[in-house]
Amino acid sequence: MAQILVLLGHSGNKRLLSQILENHELLGPQNGLIPDRNFDMVIADLGALVKWRDTLAAHREAQAPALIPVLLVVRESQLSRARSTLDGQFEDVVVSPLRAPELIARIANMLRLRQSTVELSQRANESESALENMDRAFRIFSACNELVIRAKTETELLDEMLGQLVGDHGYRFAWFGIAQHDEQKSVEVIAHCGGAAEYLENMQLSWGDNAQGQGPAGSAIRRCQPEVSQNLHTDPLFDPWRGSAAQHGMNSVLALPLLISENTVGVLALYSEKPNAFGESEIELMWRLAKNIALGLSALRSHQALDAEKERAEERAYRDALTKLPNRQWVLEELGSLEAKSEREQAHAAVLFIDLDGFKRVNDGLGHEAGDCFAGHRKMAPC
C-alpha cells in the first residue's frame, strides 16, 4: 500500500481518486499544512502545486536520490502555463476532467518510478557504506602491518594491534584467544580491547565439536578459515553468548584463525555494532591481516627461541653444569680483562681462592649423587 498525498481542489476529482485508490492510503493537508511524514507520490492541481512548491521541494530533496514523483492535474488551457512556470517540479501531467483508466495507468507508472528510485537509492547507500567500510579496513590494515614489523614482543604486538582495531576508525570490540589442547579444547583469551571485559568474564569458549565450539571463534579454529555471524540476534549458533553480546552493543562478529606452520594456534575475533557489517572484501582483507599477524607471532617466537638458545649456550660455555658457578673458562677470560684494566689504570687486583676441605669424604661416604647435591645446593631425592 502506497501513501499518496492528494492536493486537489476539485471535489469530483477527489471522489474519483478515493474510488480507484481504495487500496492505498490517501493523505491531505492538515490544519493548512502538508503532513510531516514520508509519502510515495503527489497528485496535485496547478494551484496547489504553486502554493506548496517550496514545501514539496523540501520533501523531495530530503528523500533524494529516491524520487517522490508528482502527477500534475490541469485543465487543457493550463498546460502551457504549467510547463513554463513549474518546469522540473512534476514528472507527469494528466488533463482534467479525469478518466479512471488513464488515471490508474498514470498512477501505476508513477509508483513504479518511485519504487525504482528507492531501490537505486538503497543500493547506492549500501555501496557507499561498503566503500566507507573498506576505506576504514584499509587504514587499519596498513597501521596493523606496521605494528607487525616493529613489535618486539608478543604482548606489544597483540595489545597495540587490538588498540588499532578498536580505535576511532575500528571495531566495537576485539580479542585474541589461544587454542588450548586440554580435554575441553578450550580457548584462552590473552588480550582484548573495547571496554567490554565483562563480556568475556563468564564466556566459555571451545574449539571442540560441542555447544561452546559452534560459535564463530571455535569454528574458525577448528576449520582453519574465517567465520562470520552477520546478525548475532538471529544466529542460532551464537545462542550461548547472545544476551551478553546484546548488552554490550555487539551485532555481528568476524573470527579469523591464526595459522603458524599450517596449524591454528589461536583466533582473532572482531565485533561490530552494526548487523551485516562484514562484506566479502573486508573479510578478505582482515583474513590477510590475520595471516600477517600469525607471521609476526611466528617470527617473534623464533627470535625468542634463538635468544633463549643463545643464553643456554653462553651458560654452558661459562657456567659449571652442576653448581651453576662461573667455570675455568670464565675465570681465565675475566682474569685477562682484570689484568688489562690493572695495567691501564695502574691499579692492583687480587684473586680469592676457596677450597672445600673434606668434600672427598662426602663422595666416598654417601656417594657421588650426594656429593653432587651438596655441591649444587640441592636436596637429595628420598630413597
Automatic annotation (TrEMBL):
Q: Which UniProt keywords apply?
A: Kinase, Transferase
Task: Report which superkingdom the organism of origin falls in.
Answer: Bacteria
The residues covered by the GGDEF domain are 347-383
Which species does this protein come from? Marinobacter metalliresistant
Name it: GAF domain-containing protein
What's the short name of a Pfam family annotated to this entry? GGDEF
